Amino acid sequence: IRSFAKFINENPQRSDEFLSLQPAGMQLLPLTDAKNRWNSALLMLKRASRLQRYINQYCGKNGNLKFRVSNIEWRKIEYVVQVTMPFVHFTMALLASKDATIHRACFLFETLIVQIDKSIEVLGAKSALWKQKLCRALVGMKMELQEIHEKTFEDFGVMYGTVTLIAPQYKVSAFDDVRSSCLGHAERYIEYLKIFHLQYRPQMPTSLSCLNGMSCSPQLLELEQVLHPLTGLVANSMSQNDEVGQYLREGAENISPRTYWKDHQCEWPVLTRLARDLLSIPATGGGTERLFAVAENIYHLYGGHLDEPTMRDLVMYTYSEESKSDKQLVNLVDHNTVGDEEWEEFGSRTERPEPISDDEWTPAAMSVDECSEDDGNSHAATVILESPPTDDLEQHLGDKGDDSSLFPPVTWLINSIRRRFLGGATVTQ
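Given the sequence above, the corresponding structure tokens read:
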């Protein structure tokens, strides 16, 4: 299929001849895939399956029998497309989403594994050798996906579980779902959330502290101290200490996380700031995939003419200008000759989530992991930064009274996950 697509697309005369076999309302050409993007290979096979009749006609008419695909091979293509399509649906849905996605990671893994199990069950009852071979390939796919799943939640499960907890539509109820069984018990992540909240609370800008549900300026806070020296500020302090408890007691609410935390940024300012940073982590490595695609295109164009440093700088510059690059890529494709599913593949790209809070703080206030006033505690926090995030979780939770035993800074964990995807900006250390 790949060879036939290249054979047709590289010659305008052959392309016109192939298009002449199709009705006027269709006019589709075979797609060629990019080797570093698995979903483009699937789209190539899907397009070929749609053009099966015309590919057979062209090969028979022009004597290009080396490209002819047998009926059995066409059936294989249909099976491959069918068992792989759920992965494309999930990938495209994640890439197209403008809202937070990281809180759905555990459900995504489990749903994909269930889809593979269904395909294995169907193919396991087949007797054809190629169907048995495809079944074994699916078993291998499942094992690899489970390995990635286990490694992900072994290294960063504390983050994925906590993010699931701060999703308003899930909260504690998410941990009763069979698909989230990998996370464990909710009580564990409630403790983590309280620790993360404790780490964020000292860095909260005074000018954005909330009193009685309203954002207060320093002058208003001073006035409140004069008029209500005890009641107002004491109540505010107690409210900040119990933000996690108040949030969880409200129960689940079917609303977008971004909208929810915008609405509650004055009620729970510290927890909102924590939620904003956690929910900004992407759930897919779309950034890495695009980077490889950019690098491959530049290498094919200039690989023999530029030295390594220049190539590297050109790749990073082109990737940073992704909006312009995507527009140029889309312009290379005639919308009239591409089906809806293929056009979605060319036109979609990962959206950067908007900040949850409308209020923007100064650069100094944006630092969520600044050094504490105590130099000794600052040194201890620095040492913890270099340690693995999940090796001694229970030990860190054992003695909450000692600052040196606090859980590793949440910003370290957030940035560790972001670096895996090569896309998100890191939280200021």
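Residues 2-152 form one domain. Try to locate this feature in the token string yourself.
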